[in-house]
Write a structure and sequence with these properties.
CATH class of the largest domain: Alpha Beta
Number of domains: 2
CATH architecture of the largest domain: 3-Layer(aba) Sandwich
Oligomer: single chain
Structural class: alpha/beta
Number of helices: 12
Length: about 475
């Protein structure tokens, strides 16, 4: 029935992995985008490209050496801090100082290396960010309190630019309250512009030795080597499947192409499967498939003047003729955002990072009640379902569905967020990926698109506004 299956999706993921890490504008990212263009061309469809230049930064290696009285001691670096800064081959040697103020006041570390403990959030109520609609199973909820490395790095990592301005030489961020296995290889925080000061992450175990060096006033050499490329290029692409009845109304399908492992940016592979289906079963309305670059370089890939919009905001800004319904433009009646498929759940349990459920909670934003109903109808026949639908809340809407919500297009946006979402590793986190779950989710997206295509535009309506306040999760 479908021109894709579990095996073909798995092969696509393996091919994607073979290109290497796909941070924005990197060689691996460019190879992946070219692969997508080749696959689309084989379907007989035309791709259109948008190019955006930016200054690219990529770490090559990072190390820490403590110079103790007993001799030099190497300390493992969990990961470099993206777009922080770099040293020369000799590194930076200075005394480490534990920065008790953490974020804004680095005056105690002038001319030194600031050490900052970054504690797992854990005590921030999720109802500040999420507004739960319903779930399947019905008693399923998002976690009650914000936890994990992704959210923690966005909220509690130090202000590196402030540290630089106050004369700090480098910063060591020590993960606190998360297992060493969970934090290994985390490509975080990826939403900041270039900071101009070298910074690295160290896990809690190795962080104890760093803290000891602070107490003993033992000098440290921190080395962070990186490649910098001025006017690097990120390429976003899109393609169109013409509707049999109208091109005045469109259905948008979007995702991002940049990321660091097998689930972060596997949305394009599901979209290829969807496209193969709709080439064989042409939709009534025109469908537009957008594969955007810049999700991992948001300071440069968002619409002009935007503060917190995701990368798809730039694509929407550049292609209003495909969605805004003004001045003879086509009108987008609804949209689908396809991200992070096939995720199993891994959590810290008593300090041990372990597989806690075959399915991570499928976090899905639904723009209004009608598309929420369509989403749940699409789940019929699934053998693997563990999902919660949300409304945009307190001006927060995570993932590449956010720009669609912001302009009023009712969207169904999958944005499952496992704790390993941003892990860069040799195995690409494939031990945490379920291709059968990805297949079932992709089938659901096909069903959603078909149901949307059959639904009058008036019934689909507009996206609801953001809810405000503290909600129940």
């Amino acid at each position: 029935m479908y021109p894709f299956d579990e095996k073909s999706l798995l092969e696509g993921v393996k091919t994607m992995n073979s290109f290497g890490s796909r941070t924005t504008g990197s060689a691996g990212h460019k190879r992946f985008v070219q692969y997508l263009k080749d696959e689309i061309a084989e379907m007989g469809l035309e791709t259109h490209s948008d190019f955006k230049t930016f200054d690219r930064w990529e770490a090559r290696s990072a190390s820490i050496v403590i110079h103790s009285k007993e001799g030099d001691v190497a300390v493992h670096v969990s990961s470099p801090f993206p777009y922080s800064g770099e040293t020369d081959e000799e590194g930076i040697t200075a005394q480490p100082v534990l920065n008790q103020w953490r974020y804004l006041n680095f005056l105690s570390a002038i001319g030194k290396i600031a050490v900052v403990k970054v504690k797992d959030l854990g005590n921030i109520y999720s109802g500040i960010a999420f507004d739960r609609k319903r779930a399947l199973p019905e008693d399923l909820h998002v976690q009650r309190y914000y936890k994990g490395p992704v959210a923690t790095s966005f909220i509690r990592s130090p202000f590196l630019e402030v540290a630089k301005a106050q004369g700090v030489k480098a910063v060591i961020c020590v993960w606190d309250g998360m297992s060493d296995q969970m934090v290994e290889g985390q490509y975080l925080n990826f939403i900041l512009d270039y900071q101009g000061i070298p910074a690295v992450w160290v896990n809690s175990t190795d962080g104890k030795r760093i803290l000891e060096a602070c107490r003993k006033k033992e000098p440290i050499t921190l080395t962070l080597l990186a490649d910098k490329e001025k006017d690097a290029v990120g390429e976003s692409i899109y393609t169109v499947i013409k509707g049999t009845e109208t091109d005045k109304e469109t259905i948008l399908v979007n995702t991002h192409t940049d990321g660091v492992n097998c689930v972060e940016e596997n949305g394009p592979l599901a979209m290829l499967g969807m496209m193969r289906y709709f080439v064989e079963h042409p939709p009534r309305r025109t469908m537009v498939f957008a594969f955007v670059a810049g999700h991992f370089r948001l300071p440069h890939f968002k619409k002009p003047g935007a503060v917190s919009d995701q990368a798809s905001s730039l694509w929407l800004h550049q292609h209003k003729d495909l969605w805004d319904g003004k001045k003879g433009h086509a009108k987008a009646v609804a949209a689908l955002t396809v991200e992070h498929l096939g995720c199993t759940e891994w959590k810290d349990v008593d300090g041990v990072y372990t597989n806690t459920d075959p399915i991570d909670v499928e976090v899905v934003y639904t723009g209004n009640k009608k598309v929420d109903d369509i989403y749940y109808a699409s789940l019929e026949g699934r053998t693997k379902v563990r999902t919660v639908t949300l409304r945009g809340h307190n001006f927060l809407h995570f993932g590449e569905g956010q720009p669609l919500f912001n302009v009023g297009v009712p969207a169904i946006a999958l944005v499952t967020s496992p704790d390993y979402l941003c892990v860069e590793s040799e195995g690409h986190e494939m031990d945490k990926f379920d291709p059968d779950l990805m297949y079932q989710q992709t089938v659901s997206f096909v069903k959603m698109a078909e149901m949307i295509d059959r639904t009058p535009a008036k019934e689909l309506g507009r996206a609801d506004p953001y809810s405000i306040g503290v909600s129940k999760v």
